[in-house]
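Sorry to interrupt, but I need a hand with the structure work. Go ahead and set the record down below:
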Amino acid sequence: MIKKRASIILIFAFSLFILPSASAGIFISQMDNFYNIGNPLNIQVTLNPTAPINDFLEINLDCGLNKTFQVYRSPYNLNQGQEINVNFQFFLSKPLFNTSIQELCSLKTNYGGESAASNNFEISKKIDLELTLQKKKYNPGEKVIINGIVTQKSGSLVNGFVEITIDALNIKLSKTISQGNFSYSFDIPENAPAGDYIVNIESFQQDSSGAIINEGNESETISVLPVRKNIEIVLDNQNVKPGESLKYKVNALDQANNIIGKESISVVIYKPGDFVVTKKVVKSGEENTLKLDEKDSPGYWKIDAALDEFSVRKLFYIEEVAEISASLINDTLVVTNVGNIIYKAPLEIGIGSAVEVIQLEIKIGETKKFKLSAPTGTYSIRVNDGNENSVFGSVPLTGNAVKIRDLDSINFGEFTAPILWFFGAIVLILIIVLLIKARKKKISQGNVGEPG
């Protein structure tokens, strides 16, 4: 008997799970998984009460977080077992979903103390874009064509508009969407810098009042290729002194005047008179150095650079430098032209308290020597060229008076050494001998000519 009662209790408990609950008299049709703002909710509710009911049928849109909207309320007086279908349409408007991008919602019904709920579905403002580009890399001035298919999250085709922007190129365009399709083209600016650019595309759908109700965005990356447009020569200094270094760059430039690296460029450097100093190949953007000699010719030098059909010339100026170097070897002053022009200027030479000024004219790289004389003694020697004053200390000198003699000049009045007199006497004797021989020859020729 006890076992029989236990079996009845188990069967009754199990029936609570398998038999319809109090909501068995209310059924809601299956809802789609996704809806967009502006879409209609097509709702069908079936009422089949298990007892006579006279009450209001309420249908609420429940999106959680205390966000519940009553979408339907109407009275129904039904007998037991009487079945009716309630069909109605509710449009999802923007005011109900003004802040959230998407909501997870369901429909909940109440009638005569009974309730039922639909499956969960998503209400979204999102628009999906599928973009197609013919290619990803473009030259300046080339046309970009973008095609797109625009659909709601719910799957419906969109009628609206898109905005295409490339901020880095200051491009902003608008285009309409018709039946979910749009196509647009634009030209890459001729001077667009090489590099990658993000193309932002935003789609919008409006309601009858013009308010935006659904939107979406997508982006693509395109690349603008560098195209060689010119070359340039950049100098660190326009005027250079002999002995210094000139630093220069030769740059290949693209459409935006930006440097294109790794390009090989031929370079020829000329000094005045179009004499070639050097020929070489340099890399675009790399720094190069031309080391100048202290004796390099002054004037305008030029650098010629060439790359394919592009060529350029740049001038720089080598300054004139009039400069000498002086040294003292015993009693001889040695003066060398270390500048790059003929040195023509006076030179002040101090011997003790005495001062002499000589006029110099020395060719480039030439050296002249001057013999210093003074009454026997030790003297402080000084040299001043107007720019620099050099002191050589105390030097012993001999002579009758303070004198500076150019050892490279010949002055016959100063040749008083005995050997010179000796050579002079020999020359005079030779002349006399030659005259005597010539006289004797003339006399002998005259005697031969007389008759016998």
Notes: The CA atoms of residues 145 and 185 lie 4 Å apart.
